[in-house]
Structures are given as structure tokens and as C-alpha cells.
Amino acid sequence: MASGDNKTEEFTPKCWTHSSELLPLFCRDCDRVLCSDCVTGDHVGHKLCKVSEVAVYHKNGFEKILECDKTMSRLEEILHHSQQEQKDLAEHAGNLICNVLDREMEVGQRLKLWSKKMVEDVTLLKERHDMSLKEDEYLASAVLERKTRKPVTESDSLSVTYLHSEIKRLLTSKTEIAPQKKISEKLRFEAGPPVENLDTGFGKLKQFKVHCQENSSDEINEGDHSNTLEDGDNLNEGKTLHDVFVYQPCGKGPIDDIAVFDEHKIFVVSQGTLYQFIANRKDVELDPTVIAKGVYQIAPVLSSRDLLFITYNGKEIKRLSNKSAITTFTLKRQNYDYSNEQYLALNSDIEAYICVLWSKEEKGYQMQMFISLLDEYGVNLMNISCVPKSSHWKHRPRIIATCEPSSHVIVYDGRLEAVGTTPKRIHLSAYAGSVGVNPTSQFAALDLTIDSKGNILLAEPNDNAIHLLDKSLKFKRLLLTEEDGLTGPRSVTLDPSGYLWVGCSDGQIRVFNYQYLMCTDRKSRYLHSA
């Protein structure tokens, strides 16, 4: 909210939340001066007016405060307390960081010991199995070689006795030769249960409140902008929290879609061409490899490291396997005639290998739209029908699975909808209309992604911003804007390491630490970069 500097001779009213010195409005409900960003945030629907309409009232009240000695003394105490608390906060934050790094070293050492033991166990088991197989090989080859030699003589009595007794044992134990794949089933690595929140095992940050008379300790909740970095969101080597990396892999062509497996396997779509490149923090302009042409949309399947993409005409889905082979992904569905179908969008799914949004023209209907959940072989696991508001879109839809069971979010021209993927379409909620930087613009989000807590991020080129919504599709704030270097964002994705990739209309890809964005406000980020 709006505030001022401590030095009165340099005092300039400003909004501490949004780092703005333009404060044209006043909220009568909250009794606060607002900037333009405040209006689209916590004060939506409040009673607003111009500052000039309440200036006289506040001028009289302010003069009374200046004349009150008790109030002045109290303000001096607050000033001294604030200055001392800032010093203590800086020192304590440094100690907390040391605690985190010490814990990281401790956990790292334990992880190395576990890894060393596992490698030793695998090596020992391999040697034991290998010795048994070599013994079988030695015996079998010796007997087969004897068949081609001269008859057995008395001098061979020891060899013959040894071979005869051992071969009987071998033949008895090998009555049936197991298929090759069975050897891998004798020794497998079974990972422990998935740990989505490592805070429980490693440690968590308790939020302490500064400028609060009562000593309280609250865990940071998911709705707070001061969310801390989770242990699962480790930074890539060489990166710091506030680093922003910029790549321009395809010249000036717009980045229409992004899929990131890791820094060594990144795919982008620009003007219908699918490229692959390796991130290089030293170079902005890269030399990507052309994978395919006539590509509309891509979707990574992290579990298998496959990449699926829709051809530009919407008639085929292709699969780029981890071995770099491109094949047609055939959908095996029954009881439907799909001669006129068109694939509109696809994405990975928590309940299936992939979810596909597709449409079909039917008699009596402008268009019928379906969501299909498929396994890795293209077998249909679920097929539901949904009726779009329009059959003619300026931009093709996008679809993504939420963190809730049987729930997906679809974005198409001017509308974002959450629907339940049950045998019948259930409309859950919707988000439409611009509430960001340019309220007069037409809402036309081009891409979306979702974080581990269900928050939805929308790439909105008209607002030149990334909208942040909660899981109920309620607008929370603008996470990134033009001030962060965005130029018409067209694509957005979160990689497995916790980094937010934003593809823009000018061909640039900007990479941000997502948790750093969530635990800071725009003011602190801009002051740090200044």
C-alpha cells in the first residue's frame, strides 16, 4: 500500500507493494491511497474516489496529529524500533541462510553415503550373478567341445568325472530356458514412495512477523506472496534466486510453444517449426536443431520423456520418443466415427498418459468437442463431451490437467473454463475479461501452465503479462509484466527444476526462478535489479 520515506525533506508518496509513485485513487473502504495496480488486486469492487475528494478531510486530521506531542513521541519510538528491527532482520536472515546451507550439506552427505552403498550393493550382486553365468558357460562349452574330440581315455578320468557330475546338476537346474527379459526381473531398483513436500524431512521456514507487538510464528501458507522456496525446487548449478536468463533460439520468430525436460532437452515451436536446443547461459542466440515442420502444439510426457505434437492441420498426433524416432500416435477409440475429427490441444495428465481435446462437425451441431484420456498405446480410458460457446476461434484452445482429480482447464478465445472430466461435462468456474495492465484490451490468453499447488499461470499478450490465478480461477495478481522484459508473451511452462519459461512474440525466451517470483513483490525485484 501507499507509504512514504523516512526523510521528510525527500518525501515522495509511493506504493510499497507495486513500487509506483502514481497514486491517483483513494479506497474509502480501506482508507488508503491506491496505485493503478492496487485497483486490480485486493481492492476490486471497493468504493473508490479521487484523492482530491478526500484531501481536505485528511489535511485537517494530519494537522491534529502534528499538534499531538504524545503521537509524535509514539512515532519516534516506531522509527527507532523499525530501524533496529531492520538490522536484526538482516542479521537473522543471514543466520537462517547459513542454517539452510548447513542442512543442505548434511543431507547431501547422507545422500552420497546412500548412493555409494547402493552402487556397491548393485556391483556385488552383479558379480555374484555373473560368476554363476560364467560357470554355466564354462561347463556347457567344455562338454560341447568334448563331443568333437577323440574317445575318452583313462587320463581324462578326473575331467570326465567333474564334467559329468556338474553337467547333471546344470541340466537339472536348467530344465527350461527363461526368456531374456526375465533376467532384469531378478534384480530391480524400486524407488521409495514419492515425496511431494520435502519440508517434512529436510526442514521448513517459519514466518516471523516484524512490526508486530505479539510474538507469533505462522507457517507460510500457499496464498501468501511470501512463499518460501521448497526443497524440491532446487536451483540449477550456477544460478541464483534472482537470475533471469534470456534465449533467442529462433531469431525474431514468435515462440508459440515450449516444452522443457531439462537444460539439455528443450523444445520450442516457432511459426510451425519444431526446434530442439540446449540451454547455454553464456549465449543468448543459439543454434537449434530442426526436428519437424508443420507443427501446431507440443506436450512433454515427463514420465517417459516422450514429446507429442499436433500437426498444423490438426489431423495427426506425432510422438517423438526418447530415442529420437518420430511415429504417428494412433488413437484407439470405439463406437465413434472420427472421419471429420480435428485435434485442438493436448497435454500430459495425472490420470493418464495424455489428454487430448478434439472436435468433430456433426449434423445439427456447429461443432461437438470432446476430451479423451489415453494411455501410452493410444487406448481410450475416458471420453467426455463438452459444447464450446463458439466454433470459430481466433486462437486454437489449450488444455491442462489441474491438481484435482478428474479436472481440466481449457482456454479459448476470451474465456478460461475449468471442467470436471466425468462422463458428463460439469462446468466448475470461469475467468474472462482483462483485469491486468490494459483493462480495455480484449482478453485472449494464448497458453497456460499450472504449479504444484494448483495455481494457474496465463500468458496474455494483450496485457503483456503473466496472470496468476488460484485453483478456483480467481485472479490473484500479475506475476510478470513488461517491466520484467516481456514482449507479447505467447507461451509459458514450468520445468521440473522449478523455473518459469516464457516465450514472447519477439523470439525471446525469458527464464525466471518461479518460487523467487512467488516469494517477492515487484518492488523488491526491481530495487534489486536497479
Automatic annotation (TrEMBL):
Lineage top rank: taxon: Eukaryota
InterPro entries: 6-blade_b-propeller_TolB-like, TRIM45/56/19-like, Znf_B-box
Gene Ontology terms, MF aspect: zinc ion binding
Keywords for the protein's UniProt record, in alphabetical order: Metal-binding, Zinc, Zinc-finger
Location of the B box-type domain: 15-51
Protein name (database record): B box-type domain-containing protein
